[in-house]
Amino acid sequence: MNDVLRATGRAAKSLAQGVGAAGARARAMTPRPPRFAGAYDSRDAALAAIPASLRGGYDDESIADVSFPQMCERAAFDYPLIFWLSRLLPDLRHVVDAGGHLGTKYIAFSGVLDLSGLQWTVQDLPGIVAAARKRQAAGGLPAELRFAETLKGLECPDLLLASGLMQYLDRPLAALLEDLGGRPRHILLNKVALRDGPAVFTIERIGHGRVPYQIRSRADWQAELDALGYDLRDSWEIGELSHAIPTHPWLGRSASRGYLLERRD
After folding, report:
1. CB count, 10 Å around CB of 52?
2. Is the separation of the CB atoms in 259 and 234 below 8 Å?
């Protein structure tokens, strides 16, 4: 009897998953879709599921202002970064803020940290950088911020900051270090989306557009960090950023983590 019940349960779960997967794309494209929808095994598969009219992604000047005031405010999940920056600042001369949008972290942190005298270079996609430079020229961003479209050719910084970047980056962290052409003394990461099991790509709603969003395999991510040649000085979990994909709740909730890595000399 127990075998029959287990078999029935597995069949029901499989049916629910099949129905959910079949409807995920439709729900993702409705006028009021959830923030996350769909589940795919690669970025290309997720991208292919997004209609061309919604596929602008982040390389777009028009989305630079989406939630800009909110992004300039300090959130609870920023405070581990602020804590470590406050301790590292005496030894820092140059910070590269990869995926740093319009310099929102610099603006947010300047309210509690003295960042004067520190070279802060924001790297982001060409569309975002173009919007940042226009806003800066109009006096809407701190004049001391520098912007770059690529990490290649930048002076290797003392600290590489990547807050909320890894889920949009379909490349290993080691590839960012290769682009820099050097190994920063410190790496600060925040809001890295992880799950137990294989990596999953979902579709995130950003304004009127849609972008692939990667939830990395926790085991694969840890192996990647172990291979970098850095020591883990600290790690923290951001409970409020844990989420399930509404169209695929059986995949479980993701975790969001931050890390401070120090180069092993």
Report:
1. 6
2. yes
Whole-number pLDDT of residue 19? 41
Whole-number pLDDT of residue 3:
47
Between vectors from CA 29 to CA 25 and to CA 33, what angle results, nearest 5°?
105
Integer angstrom CA distances of residue 196 from 121, 219, 222, 232, 256: 34, 7, 11, 20, 12
State the DSSP string of the chain: -HHHHHHHHHHHHHHHHHHHHHHHHHHHTSSS--SEEEEESSHHHHHHTS-GGG---S--GGGTTTTHHHHTS--GGGHHHHHHHHHHGGG-SEEEEET-TTTHHHHHHHTTS--TT-EEEEE--HHHHHHHHHHHHTTSS-TT-EEES-STTSPPPSEEEEES-GGG--S-HHHHHHHHTS--SEEEEEEEEEESSS-EEEEEEETTEEEEEEEEEHHHHHHHHHTTTEEEEEEEE-GGG----TT-GGG---EEEEEEEEE--
Which residue bears the tokens 């820099």?
180
pLDDT tens-place string over residues 10-41: 443 443 444 444 555 455 455 567 999 999 99
Cβ of 79: how many Cβ atoms within 10 Å? 12
Instruction: For the full predicted model, state whether its pTM sits above 0.90.
Output: no
pLDDT at 61 over 90: no
Quote the tokens at residue 123.
Answer: 């790297």
Tokens of 86: 């406050």
**Contact indicator for 225, 173 with CB cutoff of 8 Å:** yes
